[in-house]
């Protein structure tokens, strides 16, 4: 048993007969009244995100988990195939268990959280950022770079990312996986 002071991003808890992963949290101490913790929880079974508020000091039922590095192999429709880097065993997960499947390219190494009690995979954690190649974007207009203007670009995984005007097709860019936003251009 844990309490609300143990809440952190990525913690898996049992709540309402389901297992949820904490995506965001905020400890709030109002001037009047008791403190509480505002959380955003993502169901590891359905992928549904809910907002919930826990009173400070409330006991929460945490789930014992272990993490393993897996390499993303390929996808077939809604099913994604991964290989364990230690023993080369393969597992399949549904698209709903993934946070940002559109930013995952083949060969990417991800961390899969597995429930220690029944060895069921709970969720997939992407690296903080991924490097992807731009496959399609409109050319930037010369002289239009004074403002912080962006344009849509399609990357090699098929995802659309807003990039600055100076990015061209063939450029490699670093994309933050939590928000799906452009970070920087990678020089080769």
Automatic annotation (TrEMBL):
Pathway named in the protein's UniProt entry: Protein biosynthesis; polypeptide chain elongation
Subcellular location: Cytoplasm
Origin: domain of life: Bacteria
Main location: cytoplasm
Record domain Translation elongation factor P/YeiP central: where: 67-122
GO molecular function terms attached to this record: translation elongation factor activity
Alphabetized UniProt keyword annotations: Cytoplasm, Elongation factor, Protein biosynthesis
Keyword Nucleotide-binding found: no
GO CC, alphabetical: cytosol
Domain Elongation factor P C-terminal: 130-185
GO biological process: peptide biosynthetic process
Pfam families reported for this sequence: EFP, EFP_N, Elong-fact-P_C
Signal sequence, renumbered to the chain: none
Similarity comment: family membership: Belongs to the elongation factor P family.
Official protein name in the record: Elongation factor P
Organism, as annotated: Urechidicola croceus
Gene field: efp
């Amino acid at each position: 048993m844990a309490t609300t002071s143990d809440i952190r991003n990525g913690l898996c808890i049992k709540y309402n007969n389901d297992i949820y992963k904490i995506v965001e949290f905020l400890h709030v101490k109002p001037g009047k009244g008791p403190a509480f913790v505002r959380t955003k929880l993502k169901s590891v079974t359905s992928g549904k995100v809910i907002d919930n508020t826990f009173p400070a000091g409330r006991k929460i039922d945490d789930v014992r988990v272990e993490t393993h590095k897996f390499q993303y192999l390929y996808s077939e429709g809604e099913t994604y195939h991964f290989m364990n880097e230690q023993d080369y065993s393969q597992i399949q997960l549904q698209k709903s268990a993934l946070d940002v499947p559109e930013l995952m390219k083949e060969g990417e190494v991800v961390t899969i959280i597995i429930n220690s009690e029944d060895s069921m995979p709970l969720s997939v954690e992407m690296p903080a950022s991924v490097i992807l190649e731009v496959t399609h974007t409109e050319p930037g207009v010369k002289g239009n770079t004074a403002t912080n203007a962006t344009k849509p670009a399609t990357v090699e995984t098929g995802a659309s990312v807003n990039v600055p005007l100076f990015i061209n097709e063939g450029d490699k860019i670093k994309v933050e996986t939590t928000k799906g936003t452009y970070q920087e251009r990678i020089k080769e």
